[in-house]
Amino acid sequence: MNQQTQQDFINMVEKMPPFPKSAHRIMELAADINCNPKDLVQVIEHDPVITMKLLKLVNSAFFSLAREITSIRHALVYLGLNTVKNLALSIATIQAIPHKKLDNFNTHHFLLHALTTASIAQRIVHRFDSQLDPGDAFIAGLLHDFGKMVFAQFSPDAFAKAIDLSQQKQQSLHLSEQEILGMDHAEIGGLLAEKWELPQELIQCIRNHHQDIQTPLHNAIFVANQITKQLNFGQGGNPVIEPLPEHIEEVLGMNLLMFIDSLDGLSKEAAKAKEFIDI
C-alpha cells in the first residue's frame, strides 16, 4: 500500500462520527467490578435517546414483561445489570453509524450480524477462558466488522466490487478487499477503534479477527462470527464460513456444526437482535 492510499484510509476514518461519550462511560463502568448500578442508571438517564429506545425495547413483545417498565431503574430490577448494560451500549454504539441510506450495503442485515455475533460471543467466551469478562466479548463482537461501515460510507463502489469478487471466487471478503481496496475491513476497523480510543485489547481483537491469533477473546469472536454466518443471522457481505482451526476444536471438543447443536436458544438471539434494530 502506498503512502497516499494509506492516508486516504486514515481520512475516511477521520470522517466517521466520534464514539459516543455515553458508550465510553458505560464501558468504564462495566470494567469496574465495584460498579454501583445507580451510576449506570445515571449515565443512561443523562442520554434521552438511549433512555427512550431502551425503554421501548424493554417494553416490546420480545421481553413480554408482566408490567410496563417506566424507568431505567425498574429495567435493572427486571432484566439485570448485564442485560441493561449491553442494551444501552448497543444503542449508544449504533448511534455512531451514519444513518444515510447505502445503495450497495444493507445496514439492517449488517447490524443483525453484528448484534448476534456479540450475543453469541458473550455466551461462549467462558469456553475459552473462565476469567474473561463476557461484556468484553459482547463489545468486541458488536464492533468486529465496523470497518465495513467505513468502506460502505466512503468507498461504496470499490467495496461493492470486493463483495462481488468474494461471491464469484467464494473467498473471504477481507481477501477481496485487499485485492480491490488495498486494505481490509479488519485493519480499517482497528484504525476506527483507535480513533474511538477503545481499550487496546479490543483494538487488537478488531484488527486481527481474520488472523490466526490464539487468544481466548479472539477465539470467541471467531467462533461466534462463523455461527452467525452458518445460521444466516444477518449478512456482513462475507460468503465464506471458515472451519474451526484445530486448536479451537481441541478446546471445544467438537467441530462447528456439533458446537452449534450443543447451544440452546440461538434463534432467540436473532429474534432479540431483530427487535432491537426495529426500535
List keywords for this structure.
mainly alpha, Hypothetical protein af1432, 2 domains, 279 residues, 66% helix, single chain
Describe it:
- By secondary structure, this protein is mainly alpha-helical.
- The chain has two domains: 20-95, no CATH class; 102-277, Orthogonal Bundle (Hypothetical protein af1432), CATH 1.10.3210.10.
- The chain is built from 17 helices and no strands.
- It has helices at residues 3-15, 21-31, 37-45, 48-58, 72-79, 81-94, 107-124, 134-143, 147-154, 156-169, 173-180, 185-195, 200-207, 216-230, 246-252, 256-262, 266-277.
- Helix 1 (3-15) packs across helix 12 (185-195) and helix 7 packs antiparallel against helix 8.
- The longest helix has 18 residues, at 107-124.
- It starts with a helix and ends with a helix.
- The mean pLDDT is 90.
Question: What proportion strand?
Answer: under 5%
CATH topology call of the largest domain: Hypothetical protein af1432
| Mass-distribution shape | globular
Instruction: Indicate the structural class.
Output: mainly alpha
> What's the rounded overall pLDDT mean?
90
SSE sequence, one letter per element? HHHHHHHHHHHHHHHHH
Q: Supply the number of structural domains.
A: 2
> So, CATH architecture of the largest domain?
Orthogonal Bundle
- The level 1 CATH classification of the largest domain is Mainly Alpha
Low-confidence regions: none
In angstroms, what is the radius of gyration?
Answer: 18 Å
Helical amount among residues, as a percent range?
55-70%
CATH superfamily of the largest domain: Hypothetical protein af1432
